[in-house]
Amino acid sequence: MGDAAGASIERTLVLLKPDALTRGLVGRIIQRFEDALLKVVGAKMVWMDADFARQHYFDLEERLGADVYNITASFMQQAPVVALVLEGVDAIKTVRKIIGPTYPNEALPGTVRGDFAHQAKAYSIANDKVVANLVHASGNPEEAKQEVELWFRPEELFDYRTLAEKYAF
Ligand code: ADP
Q1: Residue 111 and residue 57: Cα distance in Å, rounded?
Q2: CA of 36 to the centre of ligand 1 (A)
Q3: In the annotation, is 118 catalytic?
Q4: Cβ(74)–Cβ(25) under 8 Å?
Q5: What CATH number is given to the structural domain containing 118?
Q6: Is the minimum distance from the CB of 131 to ligand 1 under 6 angstroms?
Q7: Per-residue pLDDT for 3 more than 60?
Q8: pLDDT at position 2, please?
Q9: What is the pLDDT of residues 82-128, one digit of tens each?
Q10: Is 47 a member of any domain?
């Protein structure tokens, strides 16, 4: 029955960024992940410093330039972040689908970034503004593994069964 390739239980790192905390959107954003039956297996609050921002966004300067790196690293230190590890079938893609693409003006209604922001890349570049897009989520399995290890010690991740798993997984 069907193609099972890639359909496995994964873990992914999610950060609720400073704009989510300062706007009071933590509960509403986590609700969307829970509604989709993603399981919270790790959760904590962290105030990032410059070193940790560099470790988390280790390739951002190379990919998007020093200006974007500096503006993003500074934004991530303006308030704490809520870090989550979410688990589910194809969790990495599933979470990216729920949050929508990087630039909120390209994110559809129904996604976190499309519903709670509308900022455009061009405007951010022209005005030296960060793209305040509420959430970070790992982009692929390698990134997820590396990011979960960076943010959480093994004993901070929990195994338990949800009621939904009885039927779905
Ligand atoms: P994503 O977070 O969707 O994986 P990237 O890794 O490419 O996207 O970018 C990391 C973060 O840097 C973005 O989420 C956004 O907050 C910020 N950012 C990206 N591009 C820009 C830009 N042109 N101007 C300002 N900030 C940006």
Answers
A1: 23
A2: 25
A3: no
A4: no
A5: 3.30.70.141
A6: yes
A7: no
A8: 46
A9: 999 999 999 999 999 999 999 999 999 999 999 999 999 999 999 99
A10: yes
